[in-house]
Specification:
Blueprint (H helix, E strand, L loop, with lengths): L2 E7 L3 H12 L5 E5 L19 E3 L2 E5 L3 H10 L4 E5 L14 E7 L2 H8 L8 E8 L8 H9 L7 E5 L2 H12 L10 H31 L1
Parallel strand pairs: 1-5, 1-6, 2-4, 2-5, 6-7, 7-8
Antiparallel strand pairs: 3-4
Helix pairs in contact: 1-6
Amino acid sequence: MTRVIGFLGGDKYDFISYIGRALSQMNLKVLLIDYTSLQEVMATVPEYIFRKVTEYQELFYVGALPFEEVKSYIEEETFDFILMDFEYACKNMEFFLCQSICFVTDMQRHHLEIVENIKVPTTMERFLVVKEENPVRKISSYLKQMMTEMKLEEENYFSCPWGEKERKNQMRCQYQYQIPWDKTSSAIKKIIWCMIQKWLEYHEQEETAALHIGGNV
């Protein structure tokens, strides 16, 4: 069954690219759909036609597909994973096709407050990735309160190291059309693998449930 992950926040095209790359290395077929106004994910692909699926570096990319088309990909199980990039709003109908939501933000208070105030359906699994120049193990009281408001489990919160190396990797994504997985820090890779492991568990549970239902028909 197709697993659909939505990403909310800003300046996260590199993070989504890393997740896509990691999934593709597991021989999973991945589609990245870009609903951002600046087409940030699509800017990492050398040549593309806005609403035509483009294959590049073993991943598939497309910009802002209509709801019905996305739904057909899900129903037909064309892809193992669909990663949708949104900004700070969840008004798109396509957003409600997601089973999991990942909020990506930095530590600036105004960005954190925007993320905190985004309302999503209770059925969606929530993840929060906060970029920090000096990551600390102890979660601040503000972040704890924020996670409570968001109904976010503490195990789904990740403090992501963010410095000069990470900024250079972002530039490689958009100016050299690379996904610099080999240059990515082990800390970021650990975060990505942790999230993927959870999604794969859900994926396998859904597959098993589908087989069980099919056996009873």
